[in-house]
Amino acid sequence: FATRLEAARSLNLPVSTLTHRVNEATRQGLRPSAHIDDLSSVPHLKMRVKRLEAELKLAGRERLEHEVIKHKILKLESAITDADIPKWVLNEKRGRNTSPGVPNLTLSDWHFGETIDPSQIGGVNSYTMAIAVARARRVGERTIRLLTILNPQFNYPGIVINLGGDLVNGNLREESTATNEENIMPVILTLYEQIGALIEMMVEKFGRVFLPCVTGNHGRNTIKTWSSDRHATSFEWLLYNLLAKRYAHDSRITFLIPNGVDANYRVFDYRFCLSHGDAFRGGDGVIGVLGPVVRGDYKKRARNSQINMEYDTLIIGHFHQYIHLSKLIINGSLCGYNSYAYNNNFPFEQPCQALFLNHPKHGITFRMPVYVSDREPKPYSTWVSVKS
To answer: How far apart are CA 306 and CA 5, in angstroms?
Structure first.
């Protein structure tokens, strides 16, 4: 038994498994060869090292490809996914003593490239690339205006800008291919310049900008959304890294670009989880998006509690409906009400983006949706009138 136990340990097998295999070999009339390699011999150890090196190379090949994209092609100085949260976001004294907190703005569901024909949705909205560019600029201008009204001294320690995905409409769907104003590559170039201009506007006004980033489900180059390597199939992930490269030498601007679907960060001691939200499915015509989102939030919190990644508030987009609860924030959209929402009888939503303040003592305080439409909601009127 001692010999069998030693053999099992050398082969990294349970004794019962080894015993079963020996008995089966005996039953089949098999006999051990006359020569048995010494497991501690140099040739055997060399063979084992070679095998382990091959396994390690295979396991690391996928990660290496991602790092090559970041470090060799984009020439980033450090892995963006390992970036630390900037100290000013965690500086509790400055936030408590000199300002009402740190502003947090979520940018998602811009759907650059999409066109919305007002004649198909009762005239309540229209969207083109020109309108998208104007609204992108308006987000920055109105964010600054709202925060100036709140704090005329404007002594905020900086601003957190979440990039929450679906910034491009994509052209994977047959309908999008037919109705998009431009193809995906020109749209990415336009979006690159617009987000860059917004970042520069914000850093000049606030002094420092922290940008957690996640990908959406529209800007991918695969027919279906991948569970593995989702980030490596997303034009938005590429866009984020190109922006990070552009501002790599500006210490005032910090990116957090995880390879997974969630970006976890803190403002002071308050913990956020940023995710796009396309994993949450279901609902009905009465409860709307809250059913699947609340259930999904519950499951995500349960999972994260098991891996020491708890969070206080979940921030998502995807549903184009602005909802701000104490532990859940659903962002609005830049494109606004479209044919999909109209044909499915969804409630009307003005285009807006979520803005709030995070206080070091009280957590989330002021909540200020940033409305970006350049037109007033269409007043109610009868669809037909008859003179008496």
So the answer is: 36
**223 closest CA partner among 174, 279, 183, 188:** 174
* The pairing of beta strand 328-330 with beta strand 313-316: parallel
Cα separation, 258 vs 74, whole angstroms = 16
Which residues are CB-neighbours of 196 under 8 A, at least 6 positions away? Answer: 243, 246
Decide: 387 and 381 in contact? Cβ < 8 Å.
no
> Encoding tokens for residue 361?
């003592």
Dihedral sign computed on CA atoms, order 323, 329, 330, 332? positive
Residue 270: helix, strand or coil by DSSP? strand
- Residue pointed to by tokens 């991918």: 220
Q: Are 241 and 257 in contact (CB under 8 A)?
A: yes
* Residue 23 main-chain phi, psi, to 5 deg: -65, -40
The kind and range of the H/E element at 318 are: none
Largest CA distance in the chain: 112
Helices (H) and strands (E) in the chain, counts: 11, 13
Q: C-alpha distances in angstroms, 225 versus 27, 218, 297? A: 51, 9, 20
Q: In a 10 Å sphere around its CB, with 0-12 CB exposed, 13-18 middle and 19+ buried, how is residue 252 labelled?
A: middle
Look at the alpha carbons of 219, 225, 226, 230 in this order and tell me if their dihedral is positive or negative: positive
The conformational region for residue 165 under phi > 0 = left, psi -120 to 50 = alpha, else beta, is left
Q: How far is CA 175 from the centre of its chain?
A: 25
Distance between CA atoms of residues 231 and 185, nearest Å = 17
pLDDT in tens, the chain (388 residues): 557 777 777 777 777 777 878 887 787 777 765 455 555 666 667 777 777 777 677 666 656 566 665 555 555 554 444 456 888 887 755 444 567 899 999 999 999 999 999 999 999 999 999 999 999 999 999 999 999 999 999 999 999 999 999 999 988 877 777 788 999 999 999 999 999 999 999 999 999 999 999 999 999 988 888 888 899 999 999 999 999 999 999 999 999 999 999 999 999 989 999 999 999 887 665 667 888 899 999 999 999 998 889 999 999 999 999 999 989 999 999 999 999 899 988 889 999 999 999 999 899 999 999 999 886 555 555 555 566 5
In a 3-state reduction of DSSP, which class is residue 300? Answer: helix
Task: Compute and round to an integer the Cα radius of gyration of the chain.
Answer: 27
